Amino acid sequence: MKGSFPYAINADSAYKNGYTVNQNGQNIEKRKLYTASLAASYRIPFATLQSITGFTNLDDTYEDYDNDLSPYEVYGYDLPLNNQKTVTQEFRIVTADERPLQLTGGIFGFTDLKKADNRSFTGSDAAAFGIDEMAPYTNVTNSTKKVYGLSGYANLTYMFAERWKLTGGVRYDYESRRLNISNTFVKEPNASEASPEQQLKGHNHSLSPRLSLSYAAAKDVLVYASYARGFRAGGFNQFTTTDYLTYDPEYSDNVELGAKTEWLDHLLRANVNLFYTNWKDQQQALIVPDFYIANIGRLVNQGAELELSLLPVKGLEVNYNLGLFHSEYKKLVLTDYNTGENMDARGNGQVFAPALTSSLSFTYRYHLPGNKAHLFIVPEWKYLSKQYLNFYNDLEQSPFSLFNLSGGLGYKAIELGVWVKNLADKQYIPYAYMPSPAASALVLLSAPRTYGLTLRTRF
């Protein structure tokens, strides 16, 4: 794949210059992905035994990448070696559904090997512009990372009364990792300066419980409550040239209350839920003083969701979704770009998380005589309220609506559709580089009104 990602250096530049890029890198990415899997199952009188084996080999190299998004020689990088091999194995047991006590359990293991050669360039124009007087030079980082993991899990579901169901589960995870990394500073015509290779070792383990209780209040009414603890292992920063080589695990406590219902002889489906998440030691990518992952803080999320689906007349389906969301960092440490010191940013909100989301769609299908062919049309509306686009919360996307439209003709198993996305040609920022303040946050401008054709078939 060759070509520039249409990033702009900040939001003002994105809106001013529209869909124009002006870069001097070829931006070549070559990706080769090979996957294989093998699954086997064996039935015994009271359960099914399963084995699932997987293998993945990924080569993902980059050449002549322009990091400064300009026609000048400021920042760039190559990644001539970036290979990852992963092997997974899972053994699982699932008991028969008709038993009052049901079990799903198993063990899961994996090995992951990743080798990388990362070359970051600081070009001659960095010195000319007063950004870095040492330029031009190159930092070369060679690394090999090996990760091994093993986990065991068990979930028990018990129907302790006619309408009551209790599910309890636990998962234990263990992960061991090792990183060999070396850095070389290259500034021609001087001799290269190589730092001694470092070898880092680390491991994490965690016990993650989950518990849920459900009650069938009526034939088509189910209410439930659940708790689950989430875990993501720590790791190594494989491409950094700084001392920030490791980061710690992150954890989350998740609580949900909800109801799933159907009414009017299954013509109306209404689901609602409330949720609360306490996200501790959150892992996020940062860029100062280098590109690396760090544990930046503790985030609390809470909200509610509503889902409605109605079949008012034959051939017509109406879907409506509403989301209410509130988030707040109880702890957040960022870098003050003016002083270079740490700053306390507690009270900021989560990125890309509008307080209000809403969507409405109509799907109408008209079957032609003979019932072999049909026409369809799907208008859709989406609304997103204000959202923050970076951790500093000084870059915002104001509320906006999107309109999409699709329609077409189907015949037996074949369907041909035409569609228009962003019908009103609304400009907005769907993505920004979260760790940067507004003045220097790389952003993407939304795609303009887009037309297309889709041909699909079912086998």
Walk me through what this model shows:
The protein has a single domain (76-91, 116-457), classed as Maltoporin, Chain A (Beta Barrel), CATH 2.40.170. It has a 19-stranded antiparallel β-sheet that branches. The model has no long low-confidence stretch (mean pLDDT 93). The chain is mostly beta strands. Strand 20 and strand 21 (396-397) form a beta hairpin. It is globular. It contains two helices and 26 strands. It is 3% helix and 66% strand.
**Helix-strand topology string:** EHEEEEHEEEEEEEEEEEEEEEEEEEEE
Shape: globular
CATH topology: Maltoporin, Chain A
In the CATH scheme, the class would be Mainly Beta
Please state the CA-atom Rg, rounded to the nearest Å: 26 Å
Named at the architecture level, the CATH assignment is Beta Barrel
Largest sheet: 19 strands, antiparallel
Portion in beta strands: over 45%
Q: What's the average pLDDT?
A: 93
